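Local shape tokens:
==================
===
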Amino acid sequence: MGSVGISAMYDRLLRADNSPAVHEYYSERLARARFVVSCIEKRRITLLNIAQRVVERQSGFLLSGQALRPFTFRQLAEEMGVHESTVSRGVRDKYIQTPRGAMLLRELFTISLDVGETVSQAQALEMLKALISREDKTCPLSDQVLADRLHRQGVALARRTVAKYRESLGIPSAAQRKR
């Protein structure tokens, strides 16, 4: 991430001139510069902390291609003891190099569906994709049947939600999938 510091030249300038006005001017500017450097360092530490926790939580996805685990900005903020907006600003427009390539840090967060066991939206999408890939192509499953089967697997989704997820995956309706 690089490093930021204050040039030693300013310290030498401060000591070289005994004029009170010059001393006051450089002292004030040096204090401001130190404040900026400390803010940058604090931001670097926060970003590093965010990245470490996200990588720990999503290691299955990063290393072996499993579905993302449920992980929200709010959960991370609570773990770190910071406000949710700190996490949101911290990951905005930040990339992370992973074994799966460079990706936006924000993409490693997913919502948790409100079901018995914690299942992420990404996991529900993977389950839906798997159900459709195993269906009989001559008699494809309707969205309601898919919703019922997901419910038996512990993921309670409405038929409309299944339809929305199916469309987001680019999978046509049962009538269009029929061969």
